[in-house]
Amino acid sequence: MQAFSLYKKLFSEYGKQNWWPVTEKGKTKPEYKNRKKLSEKQKLEVCFGAILTQNTSWKNVEKAIIRLNKKNLIDAEKILKTRKQTLAKAIKSAGYFNQKAVYLKEFCRHLKKYDFSLNKFFAEKDLRTELLSVKGIGKETADSILLYSAEKPVFVVDAYTKRIISRISGEKEKSYDELQNFFHKNLKKGAELFNEFHALFVEHAKQFCMKKPLCKNCFLKKECVFGKAFL
Ligand code: SF4
User: Which atom of ligand 1 is nearest to the CA of 215?
Assistant: First the structure.
């Protein structure tokens, strides 16, 4: 199946996903919402969320973000001034909290070079390389920050994307770079499209294409090598 026709099928089934969930001014809980623009604070919250979501579910990250909001810690300068143990306690729900406290601090230390301005940081020529040089930031986290915070047209690949594409194509799972190149080559480059497509993969992995897939009822089974067995 072609990349864009897969996108259209997923979109017509699930509709707009309104990623990435961020907190509105005066509130503490991140929400999925159709937004035209993110504030600098919301952009920072996306960066923190992308770091916190490593190896855990969004539900656990959401609790951590709420605690950070209540403590007014969606603030890079304040994160640097906060003791590691205090920060780790605030983000405990996200798991690997000691490690993630270090990662958040490392990210904020890096931002200090840009006067704590994400807009200045995002103006870097080779932003992806910069991000990857920060301790605790791998490809998926870097690309999530690039796409959902910096709004750059970079396709985010995750375990769900690898699984779904592998089952649909009937081929073994591709590497991060192979899949990212595939989407960059086969789609019109655009942050909005990449934003939506990644979110739709996540939704499909939750609704049908879980570890034990529900192929019998899946709307993609006719086009999916794995799912054809259930026709
Ligand atoms: S048919 Fe099955 S394997 Fe294929 S996309 Fe649907 S749930 Fe996943």
Answer: 2
